[in-house]
């Protein structure tokens, strides 16, 4: 299922189709390359088992994780993974954005912002009143986007 955002831009006099859509089986090779670059950015070791696990989650109708890609003329240049997250204190579900990555060669084109706007639409269609996510505190480029389009909370994150 493709989401409704279709942007047409001009590049050197030619029309280029830019599309945000759900991830498809045909995207595997390009998705893997982007996801490996995402892991490298966060200095997380990536292997084939992790890639296969996440890929299978994305295509399992019974799994929570869903995926979007941003495509320019048939080439995937960005990805987003998101899911439903229960919010018990409010007795409702919200969305959680696990991963958002734009290929470094395509940054500065507001692709991340376009994906976040699409996630707002998805969130509304699913009855989620908000989407949460985290980023590393030194990810200045991403934080500049997030500061523009979202509200930073006062919560601290802990892990055990």
Output the keywords.
6 strands, globular, 160 residues, 6-stranded mixed β-sheet, alpha+beta, disordered N terminus
Topology:
Elements: E1 2-11, E2 14-22, H1 28-41, H2 48-59, E3 66-72, E4 75-87, E5 92-102, H3 111-126, E6 131-133, H4 140-149
Parallel strand pairs: 5-6
Antiparallel strand pairs: 1-2, 2-3, 3-4, 4-5
Explain this structure.
The protein is an alpha+beta fold and 160 residues long. It has one domain: 3-Layer(aba) Sandwich (Aminopeptidase), CATH 3.40.630.30. 32% of the residues lie in helices and 33% in strands. It contains four helices and six strands. Strands 1-2-3-4-5-6 form a six-stranded mixed sheet, with helices on both faces. Strand 1 and strand 2 form a beta hairpin. The chain starts with a strand and ends in an 11-residue tail after the last helix. The N terminus is likely disordered.
